[in-house]
Amino acid sequence: MLLRCAQPGAEPRPTVLVDSRALGWQDRERREFERIVWRIRNGRGSFLASAVLRDGVGLRYDADCMAAAAPSFGAAAVHFGEKLKDAARTSIRWEPGLALLVDNWRVLHGRAVGTGDDAGIRRLDRVLVSEGER
Fold first, then answer.
1. Cβ atoms of residues 12 and 124 within 8 Å
2. pTM above 0.90, yes or no
3. What is the tens place of the pLDDT at every residue in 99-111?
4. Residues 6+ apart with CB under 8 A from 31
5. CB atoms within 10 A of CB 18
6. Do 96 and 61 fall within a single domain?
7. Are 28 and 80 within one domain?
8. Domain range enclosing 64
């Protein structure tokens, strides 16, 4: 995925990146995480899904819209949240014209917490890049 800053916003908030390969998974932890079924809420409703994508190659997680779908997944979900909290992060401070290429299958990314409301002002253009068919 290619991100380009058109407007950083009134309160420029960085994008935070976490490489999922750097989470330091133990085999047992990874198996527990892969078994979690998540309820994902979006604007059109909810659906159930795994956070692990494409034969274990990709990872998705958003604490704002994902919750463990059953109590039996709760402990593993909490453990993952703790692991994510302790993970090394890279912070990108946006300036107009700055572009960033992100492996969307591997790198978790999101907007850092801010103190004000920049809704409607910050604009990052996004282009999804695919290998395509061979």
1. no
2. no
3. 999 998 889 998 8
4. none
5. 21
6. no
7. yes
8. 24-86
